[in-house]
Amino acid sequence: MHSEQPTRVMIVLKTWQITALLLLTGAALAGCQGTLVKETVDTEYDSANAVAAVDFWHRVAERPICTNNEALHGLLLFDEGKDICNDYNERLLLLKSKGYLSDSFNAPANQAVQRGTVAKVLCHILDIQGGLSMRLIGPHPRYATRELVYLEVFPPCSPNQSMSGIEFVDAISRSETYQEDRP
Fold first, then answer.
1. In angstroms, rounded to a whole number, what is the distance separating the alpha carbons of residues 155 and 148?
2. Domain ranges of the chain
3. What is the pTM of this model?
4. Beta bridge pairs of residue 162
């Protein structure tokens, strides 16, 4: 009877280990999906219409989550003063052709934008060279986010965090200030 005890304990431990491994794997896979937003701010308007552009910024600032489409539209407005693209796919193509986004970037339009995505584009727009890692690798989302935190364009954060609308508008505002104060 004494020799059976370790065997039962080992079986229970193995069962717990397998269960824990399955739960962690499931949580990791579920965590890879971004938040999808059902209703988004209209980005398909004539960008020459200044009133519509101001309305866009006000409406985005009220959003609890900023989407990829909203962010890319706002980043183009910041970069060029207008967005000549008709939809999200055109924005992706334009930003990829400029080298602001990697060719592998394929997040859905209505998915919550990650801070690293915004940071990477902003570093290109603002021509921020960064430290050694960024100079060697380029504005990878991780290093771009760190650099913008250092420059106080972003609050302390992770590149994988999503942004609310007001956080996105604040980052654009701080980017404008950085651009104006730059020697």
1. 8
2. 50-181
3. 0.76
4. 114
